[in-house]
Write a structure and sequence with these properties.
Pfam families: ChlI, Mg_chelatase, Mg_chelatase_C. The protein is an alpha/beta fold. The chain is built from 20 helices and 19 strands. The longest helix is centred in the C-terminal third of the chain and has 19 residues.
C-alpha cells in the first residue's frame, strides 16, 4: 500500500508564526520513519511519541516506510507542537482517517505516549499566522482554548486526546469550540498614587514620564518611596489597544507567561526583574531559538530596575540598543529572531552602598560612592530623560494630607498624550519620546531665545546632542501638560531641571 497525505501546522520564529505543510508518504522501502525538513532534537523525538500515541489510541501503526516532510524545508522546526499534525498525517496517508475535514485545518499540540494532548507555548501567534494564511479551522489542546479564543476569523476547537481528534475527522465526535473573545479580561486596579507621601518633584517627574513616554531615574535613601512611585506609573498610562494587547499576549505566550482564563489584558505591563538577573534573562536567550526576555515582556509598558547600581555594568549597557530601536535582536545557531521591546525604563538607586537611614550620615568614602554610581555609564544615563533626587520623608503629615489620586493625574496624562498623538499621528509617532530629534529641530523649530539654555550647556560640554534632543522632547511634554501650542523658555528650563536634578 502506498499513500500520500498533507496536513498543516505552524512553526514559530520569534513571535511570528510560519505555516508549515506536513506531508506523509507511506510505502516503497524498508519499514521505518524518516523525518525531514530541519527538525530539532525535540521534533526528532516526535517519531516515538506519535507512534505510541497512535497505538494507545486504538489505531494501527503502518508497518511500512514512512517519510514525513515539513515545508518550507529551509526553516528550522523546533519544539513538540507538530506532534498532533504528524499523527494525523500518518493515519490519513494510511487511509485510516478521511482527509476532508483536515483540509484547511491547522493542528497544534504535543502528544503524550497514551494519546493525551498536552499544551504548548505560542498557541496565540501560531493561530494568528494560520488565520492570516487563510486557514479555516484550528485544533489545539483544550487547556489553551482561552488563548485560541482571542483570534477572530478562525474557528478554534479544543481536544484532550488524539482519539477525540480522529473521531472528529471521521464525523463521529464533536469537539468543543469557544466563541471569539472581543473584549479584555477583568480589569485589575493599579496601585493608588495618593498613597505616596510627599515627593512633589518625583510625583511631577512621574507624571511627565507617563505623559511623554520618557525614561526616569530616581535616586534617594531607602524608604523614600522609589519603588512605590515606580509601581504607580502603570496606572497613569493609557490602556493598550486590541492590536497592542494581542502583540503583548503573543510575547507572553511564547515565553510561557500568559495568564490562564483571561489572557488578554489592556493594562500596560510592569516588569521588575531582580538585580541578579543575567543578560539573557533581561534581553532574551536560551538554546535553539532564543525566547523573549524582560525587555520584551515589558513591551508598551514599564521596565523597572530597582537598586540599579547593583546590576552588572555590562548588563545595564546592553539596554542601550533596545532603548534606541524599540526591539531586541537575538542571534543563535538556529537563526536571528526579533522581539519588540518598546518600553519605558524606570531606574531606582540609593545614593551610596551603605544607604544610611535618614538620621545617620553616610560612611562611604568618596571613591566608593563614585564607583557605586559609575555602574550607570554615561551613554546609558544620556538616554534617561528625567532624573530626580528623592527627599527623606520626615513625617506622616508631610503634605498635609493625601496627594492627588491616580485618576486626577491620569486625566492630565491622557489629555497630553492625545495632544501629542494628534500632532505626530501623520508621521507615525505616538508620543513625544518617539520623535527623532532632527524632526523636532527642523519641522517644529523653536525660537532661538527658547533654545538658549540648551545651546549654552552644549557649548560648555555639559550636555550632549542626544541629551539636548531628549530635553527638547521633555519640553514638548511639559507644553502638552500645560495645554500650550509649543514649548517656551519655561518648559525648556524645567526640562533641564529634571535632567540635572539627581544625586547621580
Amino acid at each position: 500500500m502506498e499513500g500520500l497525505a498533507r496536513v498543516w501546522s505552524v512553526a514559530l520564529h520569534g513571535v511570528d508564526g510560519v505555516p508549515v505543510e506536513i506531508e506523509a508518504a507511506i510505502g516503497g522501502g524498508i519499514p521505518g520513519v524518516h523525518l525531514v525538513g530541519l527538525p530539532d532534537a525535540a521534533l526528532n523525538e516526535a517519531k516515538d511519541r506519535v507512534r505510541s500515541a497512535i497505538v494507545h489510541s486504538g489505531r494501527t501503526w503502518p508497518n511500512q516506510r514512512i517519510v514525513l516532510a515539513l515545508s518550507p524545508a529551509t526553516l528550522r522546526k523546533t519544539g513538540s507542537r507538530f506532534d498532533l499534525a504528524l499523527a494525523c498525517a500518518v493515519l490519513t496517508a494510511a487511509e485510516l482517517v478521511p482527509p476532508d475535514r483536515l483540509r484547511g485545518t491547522v493542528l497544534v499540540g504535543e502528544l503524550a505516549l497514551d494519546g493525551r494532548l498536552r499544551p504548548v507555548r505560542g498557541v496565540l501567534p501560531c493561530l494568528l499566522a494560520a488565520r492570516d494564511a487563510g486557514m479555516a479551522r484550528a485544533i489545539v489542546p483544550r487547556a489553551t482554548l482561552a488563548e485560541a479564543a482571542l483570534v477572530d476569523g478562525l474557528a478554534s476547537y479544543g481536544a484532550e486526546t488524539l482519539t477525540e481528534v480522529l473521531d472528529w475527522a471521521t464525523g463521529a465526535h464533536r469537539l468543543e469550540r469557544v466563541p471569539t473573545v472581543d473584549g479584555p479580561g477583568p480589569a485589575v486596579a493599579p496601585p493608588e498614587l495618593a498613597d505616596v507621601l510627599g515627593q512633589d518633584d518625583a510625583r511631577r517627574a512621574l507624571e511627565i514620564a507617563a505623559a511623554g513616554g520618557h525614561h526616569l531615574l530616581m535616586v534617594g535613601p531607602p524608604g523614600t518611596g522609589k519603588t512605590m512611585l515606580a509601581q504607580r506609573i502603570v496606572g497613569l498610562l493609557p490602556e493598550l489597544g486590541r492590536a497592542e494587547a494581542l502583540q503583548l499576549a503573543a510575547i507572553r505566550s511564547v515565553a510561557g507567561r500568559l495568564a490562564d482564563g483571561a489572557p488578554l489584558s489592556t493594562l500596560a505591563p510592569f516588569v521588575a526583574p531582580h538585580h541578579s538577573a543575567s543578560a539573557a534573562a533581561l534581553l532574551g536567550g536560551g538554546s535553539g531559538v532564543a525566547r523573549p526576555g524582560a525587555v520584551s515582556l515589558a513591551h508598551r509598558g514599564v521596565l523597572f530596575l530597582d537598586e540599579c547600581p547593583h546590576w552588572s555594568a555590562s548588563v545595564l549597557d546592553s539596554l542601550r540598543t533596545p532603548l534606541e530601536e524599540g526591539e531586541v535582536r537575538l542571534s543563535r545557531a538556529d537563526g536571528t529572531v526579533h522581539y519588540p521591546a518598546r518600553f519605558q525604563l524606570v531606574l531606582a538607586a540609593n545614593p551610596c552602598p551603605c544607604a544610611p537611614p535618614v538620621d545617620r550620615e553616610c560612611t562611604c568614602r568618596p571613591d566608593i560612592r563614585r564607583r557605586y554610581m559609575a555602574r550607570l555609564s554615561g551613554p546609558l544615563l544620556d538616554r534617561v530623560d528625567l532624573r530626580v533626587a528623592m527627599e527623606p520623608v520626615t513625617g506622616f503629615s508631610v503634605t498635609g494630607g493625601r496627594g492627588e489620586p491616580t485618576a486626577a493625574v491620569r486625566d492630565r496624562v491622557l489629555e497630553a498624550r492625545a495632544a501629542a498623538g494628534e500632532r505626530w499621528s501623520q508621521h507615525g509617532w505616538r508620543c513625544n519620546a518617539e520623535v527623532p530629534g532632527t524632526e523636532l529641530r527642523t519641522r517644529f523649530p523653536l525660537a532661538p531665545g527658547v533654545l538658549e539654555p540648551l545651546e549654552k550647556r552644549m557649548r560648555a560640554g555639559e550636555l550632549s546632542a542626544r541629551g539636548a534632543d531628549r530635553a527638547l522632547r521633555v519640553a514638548w511634554t511639559l507644553s502638552d501638560l500645560a495645554g500650550a501650542e509649543r514649548p517656551g523658555r519655561g518648559e525648556v528650563d524645567a526640562a533641564l531641571y529634571f535632567r540635572e536634578r539627581s544625586a547621580a
